[in-house]
Design goal:
This protein is mainly alpha-helical and 202 residues long. Among the domains are: 1-78, Up-down Bundle (Four Helix Bundle (Hemerythrin (Met), subunit A)), CATH 1.20.120; 131-168. 66% of the residues lie in helices and 0% in strands. It contains nine helices and no strands. The longest helix is centred in the N-terminal third of the chain and has 25 residues, at 52-76. The chain is extended, with a radius of gyration of 29 Å. The protein starts with a helix and ends in a 12-residue tail after the last helix.
Length: 202
């Protein structure tokens, strides 16, 4: 119990500090690296809560894909961040006002939060001893919600194909490989034998 409590405070403190460094670091590359650190500590907190599947998805999807994509975009794009920061201080009062409103809403929400008496009876799947969280989620996802899962996969596939089609650009003068023409070539098309007399050069 003491070890889990110490681990919670360790992960939580590093998470808060890294989140602050994400928005206060002057170098955008350092901000992305602190964001990756925040994701790892969030995954640690999910492991402490017993949600190892969510922790794994957080590391694989957000750290392995989204944060790396942010890092590549920040490193490859030639953006003048000093120009972007000019005039940003004039929006600080508005940001503080909106942050205060959101904080008040969260405080009002969690202060009035209470579980319904029948919440244990309305569980999607009963808790089974000896079965991990991931096994229970997979058994529920691929039995009762298999059609919704497949439809979600098809929607993501269609969106991916649409993004590829929208970003595809055809340029003129680009040499492309034509496999049929390569297979139909003969020796006469690809080779020419010339007789060169001695001393005359090619």
């Amino acid at each position: 119990m003491i070890i889990s409590t110490l681990a919670f405070y360790l992960f939580a403190s590093i998470l808060v500090l890294s989140a602050l460094m994400v928005i206060t670091a002057r170098n955008p590359v350092h901000s992305v690296l602190f964001l990756i650190l925040a994701f790892f500590n969030t995954a640690g907190l999910f492991v402490l809560l017993g949600a190892e599947f969510i922790a794994m998805i957080l590391v694989i999807v957000y750290v392995g894909a989204v944060a790396v994509l942010f890092l590549f975009v920040v490193m490859m794009l030639d953006i003048s961040f000093s120009d972007l920061r000019k005039g940003a201080m004039q929006y600080v009062p508005i940001g503080l006002l909106l942050g205060g409103v959101l904080l008040a809403e969260l405080f009002a929400l969690y202060s009035a939060w209470q579980f319904a008496p029948q919440v244990e009876m309305n569980r999607a799947a009963p808790i089974v001893e000896g079965v991990s969280n991931t096994e229970s989620l997979g058994a529920l996802l691929y039995t009762e919600y298999v059609f919704a899962f497949q439809i979600a996969g098809l929607i993501l596939l269609v969106s991916m194909i649409g993004a590829i089609v929208l970003s595809l650009r055809t340029r003129g003068g680009v040499r492309k490989q034509k496999v049929a023409d390569q297979f139909s070539r003969t020796v006469e098309d690809s080779m020419e034998i010339k007789k060169v007399n001695s001393g005359s050069g090619a």
